[in-house]
Design a protein that fits this description.
The complex is a heterodimer of chains A (595) and B (755). With 595 residues, chain A is mainly alpha-helical. Among the domains of chain A are: 294-389, Tetratricopeptide repeat domain (Serine Threonine Protein Phosphatase 5, Tetratricopeptide repeat); 393-503, Serine Threonine Protein Phosphatase 5, Tetratricopeptide repeat, CATH 1.25.40.10. Helices cover 66% and strands 0% of the residues of chain A. The relative contact order of chain A is 0.04. With 755 residues, chain B is mostly helical. Among the domains of chain B are: 32-171, no CATH class; 616-754, Serine Threonine Protein Phosphatase 5, Tetratricopeptide repeat, CATH 1.25.40.10. In chain B, β1 (14-15) and β2 (18-19) form a beta hairpin. In chain B, α25 packs antiparallel against α26. The chains are: A mainly alpha (595), B mainly alpha (755). Chains A and B meet through α6, α20 and α22 of A and α7, α8, α13, α14 and α15 of B. Chain B: Belongs to the APC5 family. Chain B: Pathway: Protein modification; protein ubiquitination. Chain B: Keywords: Cell cycle, Cell division, Cytoplasm, Cytoskeleton, Mitosis, Nucleus, Phosphoprotein, Repeat, TPR repeat, Ubl conjugation pathway. Chain B: Residues 30-168 form the Anaphase-promoting complex subunit 5 N-terminal domain.
Chain lengths: 595, 755
């Protein structure tokens, strides 16, 4: 799949510094490399890579004057193209791409050639965007293409075969291939690019977007450099392998990148993905202190604030971002979240729509818009929004889940099973889908399947702590009192071990059932303990008292009470066995025949 | 037996059996191809009456509709099409397009300005509301809506289109003229071609809404009526993906994709497409104001119903039931009787898989008539008839019911159901053992012209009913020993329904059965044995039965007995009476072949009772044959002979040739056996008659190549001639017997101990 290292042409001798080692022992060397690549990418108009390198370089301690790198020597070719390059770069910077390309035509130096091709590519992209507004008909919309791509591909592939492309050229070739949907070839070229020029973050990032699963990652032969660590951490986050990602990021922080806002934000996102809300929030707050004008990732931050219902903080964030730049996708998203939290769902939907106008491929907004429509009880619009989200990314589990919820609201439990199952396949570890599945099965009277779902939901670590109660009730319904009691015991155990003082509505139910269960089993001590607990709740107080009286009566009738001291809890040892969820589990095999 | 296929019960693109294209507003726009067609129309108007002959004009007019509706085609193809119908017009069209494309933008503008002239004047060339008129007006409207840059873009597109057409014709004319430069250019082009191979699939470019709708409805109706003419599953899917890429909101494409996936039995993709379709449909339903909330809720109900249908088609009956319950609940909540009606029919289809309760079905038919759903009603009647036929109701009642529903079909022009009804009659007649009637019905269906529009040159569609009728025809011919005719029919079937189409299984089974019967007649048991696997794959019950027969023929009695007992229990459970009787007959045969005819008698009586009860005349007469044979073995030939007189008539009238032969042979045997007690002159007379009958039997056996039986007949004849003292004839027969005996190895069964 990937080009083997032996056939990769060596990096041009112009940039001897760029062959980087894989360890982090020499941070100064790394800093030098970062500064160099930031300059190189800037010269070529690769702004995002330049920004990334500069940010990372900034996080490392400054170099003394003696260590500073002199700018790379200018070759004969570069000198020849100097004038054309300077002019074209100026045009490029003011986004006159065609003009830039015109003046660069015929230049031989690598830098000028790259800028030439890159301006042609960007010009095509820009025209494509303009065309979309002005196309001939509705069906043609999807057909508007970057016309320049094919020509670029032909030229670049010739150069590629002749081994005349440097790292940047390879990167551009890869981008062109990806835009033409030639994914396999693109991956090969990007891998080659990372071998030739490992410092260029853009190539790594493109690779991240093309790799869809862990297996693909395994088969790539990547260069052994310190950049690889950043790449792996990034892709683990993308592939939802959060623990591995966090591990990698921790390593990077340990070797000295602790001040990098990029790493901090990535860690925050990772915590968000595993729903460790408090940690993510604190990291984001820290990040905002360090870098108050940062807009990237702020949508994730706002999601967290939303989940915690922190109205004032969200409002502050929204106003702040709006002041910085109100025409950014992230800003629109934050404002949308803000309105949603204030229950102004129409306005929220409006802002999500705006976000989509700014970037139609911004996936999160479709899903969030779906949620808003759900709140407005506009189910058909919600379905539409979710479907759009799925079209952009089939792996968006929230959209599948949202679709499931929509149909559940429409009282179609069988119909929504399909959607929940899709969501479950994408997130086998997420208890919410499992509980939702279980509820649907319960409604369909498929109790065996429902039990499986609830049990699995508990096993993977239940977020809402409802699975056990539901499971217990199911057992109760099936008059499997033994299992029901065990579930209730586990439930209570869970709540107490959690230590949180949140009102659990089902606690009283659990105690009531347990009291009755022990009463039936003639375990008086346990029964009375539970009955006493019942008295602590309003709805079960009377029952608890009545039960206590009965117990007392029966005890007096029976033989002498053996122990006066009430046992704290009847907890069989087997139940407190380890219930830590396995890290990565396969999706539950519910019923083999249905897709 | 012709079964009413589930898929007929519901199809959202269809109301009362008619496929409709979705109409959601006409959206069209100008493309270079459309300009070329406009030029053609314009030229046609200009040439006037005299210049073009009447034949040419007629051909042109026929050409127009597909040009207006179809997808865009290249310029050279268009020229070719026009040239075929009218060469001189093609020339002038070519010149005008050339002028326009090589001229300036204003030529195109002028052209569109002039277009509307055709409507003006006291006697306009084009009527405003005619097909052509509508097309012209759409185009003019679409053109005037274009913005400045769009007009220019259209013009450059036209130039491109023209140049592509030119290049192609140049390439066609002088291929040998390839200078070095051109070769180079070509190489570059090839390189480009390699890169765009993926895109080449959609060489026709994006379809306009109208064109897309036309494409979808055309393919959908082809899938229903004549699968072989539709695109292959893979290419159809490619087209659909292409369509969806350009317009993801085009929900109908998802439904077609669902149908296409059903063709290849892909559960996952078809579920996905179906749900996607309804998600999309819900959105369009909500958007159109006229439907309002009603339309939205409606699609929800049908979504659940369709899901049930899907699961049922894939055999997930439990899932189907759950989905159906959901559909019923929602439909009940919103008082949608029509939807409930559909649900009820499906409930029957599902129930049919488990038990036979026709209460549901009767109810469904009544309700359907009440709500004015003739399609559903007569589909219900047909299902009911089918079920009643299996349940042994009298033929006249069934035929009455079919006649009534036929009235309904003709009234509403439900041609599909007419076909099914005739195919069903064929099957019922065969079930009752009336081969002549069955033959007649099958022929009637085949020589009938379809009411529906079908492709030119073909009178019928390739629907299931035709496959069923043809299969029956093949089997009927094979029964009469006309194997050449049968294989001819099968060859036709193979052509009409290629092996991977959805009704191919029908003829495959039929073909295997005929081959099996031939192999058995021929005594090639190993060959028959190898066919059993194929039959089992297509129909497991039939397969087991045939396996037992082969085992029996190979004298593996205990294995055969075991199999038959198992089969008997299973068939009794699923109430497959036809098979039960056949199995009973085989069991009886097993008994007397293992020399215990007394045990066979009650089994045979049971079979006789069953076949009389269910009016399966063919099986009944076969049972009588067996009974008579048992009596013969038990030594009461007179009794057997009188029994045979009862059965011989229907066998000779409707039975298979093999059965006719067997019956005659048996008659002869009985005659000989009973003649033993007669006085000599009478005895001679009886023996002579027996020899006559044997000759007849021999002829029948010869027709179906039953060498073993012929051998037995010849042996028997030789013995009779010997008794009568006719040495010459005896020797002839003996020689024949010797020849046959050398050819066929004897299996150690006493020669005469065989029906």
């Amino acid at each position: 799949m990937a080009a083997s290292p032996s056939v990769v042409p060596m990096a041009a001798p112009v940039m001897p510094v760029l062959s980087s080692s894989s360890d982090f022992s020499n941070l100064r060397e790394i800093k030098k490399q970062l500064l160099l690549i930031a300059g190189l990418t800037r010269e070529r108009g690769l702004l995002h890579s330049s920004k990334w390198s500069a940010e990372l370089a900034f996080s490392l301690p400054a170099l003394p004057l003696a260590e500073l790198q002199p700018p790379p020597p200018i070759t004969e070719e570069d000198a020849q193209d100097m004038d054309a390059y300077t002019l074209a770069k100026a045009y490029f910077d003011v986004k006159e791409y065609d003009r830039a390309a015109h003046f660069l035509h015929g230049c031989n130096s690598k830098k000028a050639y790259f800028l030439y091709m890159y301006s042609r590519y960007l010009s095509g992209e820009k025209k494509k965007d303009d065309e979309t507004v002005d196309s001939l008909g509705p069906l043609e919309k999807g057909q508007v293409k970057n016309e320049a791509l094919r020509e670029l591909r032909v030229e670049l592939s010739k150069k590629h075969q002749a081994r005349e492309l440097d790292g940047f050229g390879l990167y551009l070739y890869g981008v062109v291939l990806r835009k033409l949907d030639l994914v396999k070839e693109a991956i090969d070229v990007f891998v080659e690019a990372t071998h030739v020029l490992p410092l260029h973050w853009g190539a790594w990032l493109e690779l991240c977007n093309l790799i869809t699963d862990k297996e693909m990652l395994k088969f790539l032969s990547l260069p052994d450099t310190w950049m690889k660590e950043f790449f792996l951490a990034h892709i683990y986050t993308e592939l939802q392998l959060i623990e591995e990602a966090l591990q990698k990021y921790q390593n990077l922080i340990d070797v000295g990148f602790s001040k990098s806002s990029y790493i901090v934000s990535q860690i925050a996102v990772a915590y968000h993905n595993i729903r460790d809300i408090d940690k993510a929030l604190s990291i984001f707050n820290e990040l905002r202190k360090q870098d108050p004008y940062r807009i990237e990732n702020m949508d994730t931050f706002s999601n967290l604030l939303y989940v915690r219902s922190m109205k004032s903080e969200l409002s502050y964030l929204a106003h702040n971002l709006c002041e910085i730049d109100k025409y950014r996708v992230e800003t629109c998203c934050v404002i949308g979240n803000y309105y949603s939290l204030r229950s102004q769902h129409e306005k929220a939907a409006l802002y999500f729509q705006r976000a989509l106008k700014l970037n139609p491929r911004y996936l999160g907004a479709w899903t969030l818009m779906g949620h808003e429509y759900m709140e407005m009880k506009n189910t058909s619009a919600a379905i539409q929004a979710y479907r759009h989200a799925i079209e952009v990314n089939k792996r968006d589990y929230r959209a599948w889940y949202g679709l499931g919820q929509t149909y559940e609201i429409l009282k179609m439990p069988f119909y929504c099973l399909y959607y929940y199952r899709r969501a479950h396949q994408l997130r086998p570890n997420d208890s919410r889908m499992l509980v939702a599945l279980g509820e649907c099965y319960e409604k369909l009277n498929q109790l065996v399947e429902a039990k499986k779902c609830y049990w699995r939901a508990y096993a993977v670590g239940d977020v809402e702590k409802m699975a056990l109660v539901k499971l217990a009730k199911l057992h109760e319904q099936l008059t499997e009192s033994e299992q029901a009691a065990q579930c209730y015991i586990k439930y209570i155990q869970d709540i107490y071990s959690c230590g949180e003082i949140v009102e659990h509505l089902e606690e009283s139910t659990a105690f009531r059932y347990l009291a009755q269960y022990y009463f039936k089993c003639k375990l008086w001590d346990e029964a009375s303990t539970c009955a006493q607990k019942c008295c602590a709740f309003n709805d079960t107080r009377e029952e608890g008292k009545a039960l206590l009286r009965q117990i007392l009566q029966l005890r007096n009738q029976g033989e002498t009470p053996s122990t006066e001291m009430p046992a704290p809890f009847f907890l069989p040892a087997s139940l407190s066995a380890n219930n830590t969820p396995t890290r990565r589990v396969s999706p539950l095999n519910l019923s083999s025949v249905t897709p | 037996m012709a079964s009413v296929h589930e898929s007929l019960y519901f199809n959202p693109m269809m109301t009362n059996g008619v496929v409709h294209a979705n109409v959601f507003g006409i959206k069209d726009w100008v493309t270079p191809y459309k300009i070329a067609v406009l030029v053609l129309l314009n030229e046609m108007g200009r040439t006037g009456e005299g210049a073009v002959s009447l034949m040419e004009r007629r051909r042109l007019n026929q050409l127009l509709l597909p040009l207006l509706q179809g997808p865009d085609i290249t310029l050279s193809k268009l020229y070719k099409l026009i040239e075929e119908s009218c060469p001189q017009l093609a020339n002038s069209v070519q010149i005008r397009i050339k002028l326009m494309a090589e001229g300036e933008l204003k030529d195109m503008e002028q052209f569109f300005d002039d277009l509307s002239d055709s409507f003006s004047g006291t006697e306009p060339e084009v009527h405003k509301t005619s097909v052509v008129g509508l097309f012209l007006r759409h185009m003019i409207l679409a053109y005037s809506k274009l913005s400045f840059s769009q007009v220019f873009k259209l013009y450059t597109a036209l130039q491109q289109y023209f140049q592509n057409g030119e290049k192609k014709s140049v390439e066609d004319t002088d291929m040998e003229l390839t200078s070095r430069e051109e070769g180079e250019r070509k190489m570059e082009k090839e390189e480009l071609d390699v890169s765009i191979r993926e895109e080449e699939v959609s060489c026709s470019g994006p379809l306009s809404q109208k064109q897309a709708e036309f494409f979808l409805s055309q393919q959908a109706s082809l899938l229903k009526n004549d699968e072989t003419k539709a695109l292959t599953p893979a290419s159809l899917q490619k087209e659909l993906n292409n369509l969806l890429k350009f317009n993801p909101d085009f929900a109908e494409a998802h439904y077609l994709s669902y149908l296409n996936n059903l063709r290849v039995q892909d559960v996952f993709s078809s579920t996905h497409s179906l749900l996607h379709y309804f998600d999309r449909l819900i959105l369009t339903g909500a958007e159109s104001k006229s439907n309002g909330e009603e339309g939205y809720g409606r699609s929800l109900r049908y979504a659940a119903l369709n899901l049930a249908a899907l699961h049922c088609r894939f055999g997930h009956y439990q899932q189907a039931e759950l989905a159906l319950q959901e559909a019923i609940r929602i439909a009940q909540e919103s008082n949608d009787h029509v939807c409930l009606q559909h649900c009820l029919s499906w409930l029957y289809v599902l129930g049919q898989k488990r038990s036979d309760s026709y209460v549901l079905l009767e109810h469904s038919v009544k309700k359907a008539v009440h709500f004015g759903l003739p399609y559903l009603a007569s589909l219900g009647i047909q299902s009911l008839v089918q079920q009643r036929a299996f349940a042994g109701k009298t033929a006249n009642k069934l035929m009455d019911a079919l006649k009534d529903s036929d009235l309904l079909h003709w009234k509403h022009s439900l041609s599909e159901l007419i076909d099914i009804s005739i195919a069903q009659k064929t099957a019922i007649w065969r079930l009752y053992g009336r081969s002549t009637m069955a033959l007649q019905q099958a022929q009637m269906l085949l020589s009938m012209n379809s009411l529906e529009a079908v492709n030119a040159g073909v009178q019928q569609n390739n629907t299931e009913s035709f496959a069923v009728a043809l299969c029956h025809l093949a089997e009927l011919h094979a029964e009469q020993g006309c194997f050449a005719a049968a294989s001819e029919v099968l060859k036709h079937l193979k052509e009409r329904f290629p092996p991977n189409s959805q009704h191919a299984q029908l003829w495959m089974l039929c073909d295997q059965k005929i081959q099996f019967d031939r192999a058995m007649n021929d005594g090639k048991y190993h060959l028959a044995d190898s066919l059993v696997t194929g039959i089992t794959a297509l129909n497991s019950i039939e397969g087991v039965y045939r396996k037992a027969i082969v085992l029996q023929a190979q004298n593996q009695m205990s294995e055969a007995h075991k199999l038959l007992q198992k089969l008997l229990i299973h068939c009794q459970k699923i109430r497959n009476t036809e098979m039960v009787i056949s199995v009973l007959l085989s069991v009886a045969e097993l008994y007397w072949r293992s020399s215990s005819p007394t045990i066979a008698l009650p089994v045979l009586l049971q079979a006789l009772a069953l076949s009389k009860e269910y009016r399966l005349q063919y099986l009944a007469s076969e049972t009588v044959l067996n009974l008579a044979f048992a009596q013969l073995i038990l030594g009461i030939p007179e009794q057997a002979l009188s029994l045979l007189h009862m059965a011989i008539e229907p066998i000779l009238a409707d039975g298979a040739v093999l059965d006719k032969g067997r019956a005659m042979f048996l008659v002869a045997k009985c005659q000989v056996a009973s003649a033993a007690a007669y006085d000599p002159p009478k005895k001679t007379e009886a023996l002579e008659a027996a020899i006559e009958n044997l000759n007849e039997a021999k002829n029948y056996f010869a027709k179906v190549d039953c060498k073993e039986q012929i051998r037995d007949v010849v042996y028997f004849q030789a013995r009779l001639y010997h008794t009568l003292g006719k040495t010459q004839e005896r020797n002839r027969c003996a020689m024949l017997f010797r020849q046959l005996h050398q050819e066929l190895p004897s299996h150690g069964v006493p020669l005469i101990n065989h029906l």
